[in-house]
Write a structure and sequence with these properties.
This protein has about 190 residues and is of the alpha/beta class. The chain has one domain: P-loop containing nucleotide triphosphate hydrolases (Rossmann fold, 3-Layer(aba) Sandwich). The protein is about 40% helix and about 20% strand. The strands form two sheets. The protein has a five-stranded parallel sheet with strand order 2-7-1-8-9, sandwiched between helices. A hairpin with a 3-residue loop joins β5 (about 70-75) and β6. α1 (about 20-30) packs across α7 (about 170-180). The model has no long low-confidence stretch (mean pLDDT about 90).
Amino acid sequence: MSDKPRLTVLAGPTAVGKGTVSTFIRDHYPQVWLSVSATTRAPRPGEVDGVHYYFVAAEEFDRMVADGDMLEWAVVHGRNRYGTIRRTVEQAMAEGKSVLLEIDLQGARQVKDSMPEANFVFLAPPSWDEMVRRLVGRGTETPEEQQQRLETAKLELAAESEFNHTVVNDDVRRAAEELVSLMGLVPNPR
């Protein structure tokens, strides 16, 4: 790995498993600093504030955007806002850590505008049918929300060429090890 800490951005369509791959990396690669996004949505069962997301009120999120405190942010699926808190990423990079942002396509494009030297990795599903199965199988969205997410996913899949690398999420461990390797680290999960 180079002397300069490298920022890696992981994005891909909804239900591709970005969160699952990121969780595997958080649990097995302590040398990777995984950014925790802020969101205006309510926590899902089992999610912990400050671990999975920073859950903030809409007014607080708006203040952070207005004050330039967000590296990137977006309205996702026409409903909730998600974003990366700029100071947390800058501090981790200043400390020499390998930084991983797990964000949506809109956010990845914003980071690319401000930090084009970052490493951009697209997480792809093994197939469309598998992605639909994962989305429906997790049972966290209503049928209407599932349909909205699938329509969004079609657009997101078309953006693959905007990224430096593509990793197919056919197996979480294998995908995580490939991503860690693309970050310039030796894939050796603990």
